[in-house]
Specification:
The chain folds into 2 domains: about 160 residues, Tetratricopeptide repeat domain (Serine Threonine Protein Phosphatase 5, Tetratricopeptide repeat, Alpha Horseshoe); about 240 residues, Beta Barrel (Porin), CATH 2.40.160. Helices cover about 30% and strands about 40% of the residues. The radius of gyration is 27 Å and the shape is elongated. The protein is an alpha+beta fold and about 400 residues long. The protein starts with a helix and ends with a strand.
């Protein structure tokens, strides 16, 4: 009995199927590519027309940067079996990673002529078109994919990136109303107008915000940019100024590095700068997000070192977004603790060195209308210790309109 169990636990290296399984085990479980290739050479000698053998061999050549050998494998399969889906997927990946975007697109489209509903090939087509800056075509491809499977997390992550690139210009208007039950007698009013443009290095946005707070009017002028660094990384750079300290910070700024990670993850590390009338405050932030089916879940923290406050200050936020149609159609929820420097209506309350307690919860609804118009409504509630051991409630309501053109 022991001999029989031992025999069945060993890989079958007498058949082509068994050799393929053994090659995958050697590559994935043992990280032994030479052993995997040896199994595949033996299998190909037995079954030279077995396409999956050459596709997997081509993938191993790709992973070991033997690109010419990989190309020969993929093209041999496509010569024998035109449009073979797995070969097209692997070949499109290899050429994309080597900056051969036109070839990656051509291979994806060849596969789609035989498999028009292939999610993997539609994703690779959209990805290649996006990096080639053919944004309208990329958007069409990714939206076709989302219609096939709205729970495809990679497609939704890519759709969000394409959405920002698909149109060169955008204008936006927003209004915020903030009221208090105890902390302040008069409500706050904020109105923002912004214009953004997509350039060769990324998007740039200018914004003017008017606010009436503490019975005082003020204006803030901001410039933001999102420079692209690579297919994986992009950044955020922001600077703002106001001549009415108290209504706004005198200066505000920020920098973040974003990463589009494998398996539908995204991440950010950054710093924020606030300067009121006294010493400046530096705040450090980190974020991790995960796309799952039609959802985006995220967690963020802001840390202010004790250099700038009486003790180390921190805030935390957990969010969830449900995309019920396109990348612009969304219902979101968030809960958190503390005050964020990115909060357009509450960052002014960071102007102090006392660590006070604040809890918050919010909801946001976004809807795309007539393709290029996006309307947003959101509301939030804060339960805030605005003086030591003195707690009040704050309520915020916002409406916004964005037009891409």
């Amino acid at each position: 009995m022991f001999t029989a169990v031992k025999a069945t636990s060993q890989a079958d290296t007498t058949s082509s199927d068994g050799l393929l399984i053994a090659a995958k085990k050697a590559a994935f479980d043992e990280d032994n590519y030479p052993k995997a290739k040896a199994y595949l050479y033996k299998a190909i000698a037995k079954s030279p027309n077995y396409a999956d053998l050459r596709v997997f061999l081509g993938r191993i050549y790709t992973w070991t940067k033997n690109y010419d050998s990989a190309r020969i494998c993929f093209e041999e399969v496509l010569k024998q079996s035109p449009g073979y889906e797995d070969a097209c997927i692997a070949y499109a990946d290899m050429t994309y990673w080597n900056d051969e975007y036109k070839k990656s697109l051509a291979v994806s489209e060849e596969g789609l002529t035989y498999h028009p509903k292939s999610e993997a090939l539609l994703l690779r087509k959209a990805r290649a078109l996006n990096i080639m800056r053919r944004f309208q075509e990329a958007d069409k491809a990714v939206q076709e994919l989302v219609k096939l499977n709205k729970n495809n997390t990679e497609a939704r992550a890519l759709a969000n990136r394409i959405r920002e690139n698909a149109t060169k210009n955008k204008i936006g208007v927003s209004y915020d109303f903030v009221t208090f039950d105890k902390q302040f007698a008069d409500p706050w009013h904020l109105v923002s107008v912004d214009y953004g443009r997509t350039t060769g290095i990324g998007s740039i946005t200018g914004r003017i915000t008017y606010a009436n707070r503490f019975k005082t009017d003020g204006y803030q002028y901001e410039l933001e940019a999102y420079p692209r660094i690579s297919n994986t990384f992009y950044s955020y750079v922001g600077l703002g100024y106001s001549d009415q300290v108290g209504v706004f910070p005198r200066w505000r700024g920020g920098f973040s590095l974003y990463a589009n990670l494998p398996k539908s993850y995204e991440a950010e590390l950054g710093v924020r700068y606030l300067k009121f009338s006294g010493d400046p405050t530096w705040v450090y932030t980190g974020y991790i997000g995960k796309y799952y089916k039609s959802w985006l879940f995220g967690a963020r923290t802001y840390i202010t070192p004790s250099t700038f406050t009486s003790t180390v200050s921190s805030s935390y936020n957990i969010s969830a977004r449900y995309y019920y149609a396109s990348a612009d159609d969304m219902l979101g929820f968030n809960v958190g603790y503390g005050i964020s420097p990115d909060d357009r209506f509450n960052a002014i309350q960071i102007n102090g060195n006392t660590k006070l307690i604040s809890y918050k919860a919010g909801i946001i609804f976004r809807k795309k209308v007539a393709r290029f118009n996006i309307f947003t409504i959101d509301g939030s509630w804060f339960n805030q210790e605005y003086l030591p051991k003195t707690i009040g409630n704050q309520y915020q309501f916002s409406v916004a309109w964005l037009r891409r053109f």
